[in-house]
Amino acid sequence: MILQDEYNKKLVSPEEAVKVVKSGDRIDWSSFNGQPVLLDQALAARKEELSDVHIRGASSQRQVACVEQDQKREHFIYSSWHMSSYERKLHDKNLCNFNPVAFHERSQYYETGHVAPDVGMMQVCPMNKYGYFSFGPQANSVYTILKHSKKVLVEVNPIMPVALGGRDEICHISEVDYVVENPGIPLIEVKPATPSEKDIAIARHIIKEIHDGCCIQLGIGGLPNTIGQMIAEAGIRHLGVHTEMLADSYVDMYEAGCIDGTRKATERGKISYTFALGTQRLYDFIHMNPICAISPAAYINNPNVASQNPNLISINSCLEIDLFSQVSSESINGRQISGTGGQWDFAKAAYMSKGGKSIIAMSSTFKKKDGTLGSRIVPTLGGGTIVTLPRWSVHCICTEYGMVDVKGASTWERAERLISIAHPDFREELIKEADRMKIWLPSSKIK
Predict the structure, then answer these.
(1) What is the domain-level CATH number for residue 229?
(2) Is 208 exposed, middle or buried, given 0-12, 13-18 or 19+ CB atoms closer than 10 A?
(3) Options 244, 320, 330, 400, the catalytic residue
(4) In what order do the strands lie in the sheet with 320-322?
(5) Is 400 annotated as catalytic?
(6) What are phi and psi of 233, to 5 degrees?
(7) In angstroms, rounded to a whole number, what is the distance separating the alpha carbons of residues 117 and 151?
(8) For residue 58, which of 73, 74, 81, 106 is within the disulfide window of CB 3.0 to 4.6 Å?
(9) Does 292 share its domain with 229?
């Protein structure tokens, strides 16, 4: 069959496409800009016909119609692999549950049958002349969802950037059951956060660890943007990129001549990533750009793959850390904030990398609702707080007061080093608590 004929045969309205969904079905859909919009709305309109339909999303940046129109969860049950701020608010209303996962393992859940979707949905780029749809700037686990779904519905967005890649970033028209077209729904844009004074102070400590030839992995926010600017100003060269998320700061570094990927071991010369989230400038940069290579998280986040790159520097943030050096990056006192994502993946990969270093960065304090300060370094994590990184996996911790290495350190050494980078106003109390917990030496000195 001629490819365009097959496309036309499968082209239907959103309302017609979602008729494949039955009560009791399990639906998985793509995340970020790949989240279906018209299909979600059409499915929500069918709510009175359906019950016990489970939907798994991730990091939703848009409202989910199936949730918004079913506030009692009588028809749809929504869960997320990684909470966005929107999903966090749904979770607070008991309208969204969390699926714990280390990002590199997610595809394996489908492969081994732990997760079995009936219907897969995703926004994609327009079909090319060879019959292929690009998944756009989010590979994640999209192809695995498609491969293991009984029915596959794609929603074509004509303005979705085409992300060239290394593997599993496209699907063929023969793998799709129904095609829906949207008029060009605007892409989600996340503008770089303005760095705080604390971000700048933390970045000054971290930049000392980055040198010519390093391979970097950064998250999102004011701190990574600041680090990117400092890298450009410092004239660091021959950097490689092997990262879960691609953000605008990488474009800054590339345009400043810092990134060429020539010293990478995997995908030499390429900017390797599994999803991109930023401004239109970032999406324009990745569109049909052969220097960028998108691949699924099962590859990018796999510690055995990422660690092949020498001098891998992984920089991520957290919510709080206790004196045992247990890191919480996803919840506080039972409230789900985000998710594990790729933090464990890259903490492990960076330490496995020859010359690599995993850095967890955070400001030493946060502002409470009453305006007073609280310490992010605490004696022990609160009840219901999830441990994202167990203490054995933690390498370096950085605040505005400095950076400490806790690998191989005893419990009292960890406590001493962490207290040394806590806010001065909280050090005395932390010392008392460390002593009470029998992880303190009377001879210890904190400057």
Answers:
(1) 3.40.1080.20
(2) exposed
(3) 244
(4) 327-328, 320-322, 377-378
(5) no
(6) -70, -30
(7) 9
(8) 81
(9) yes
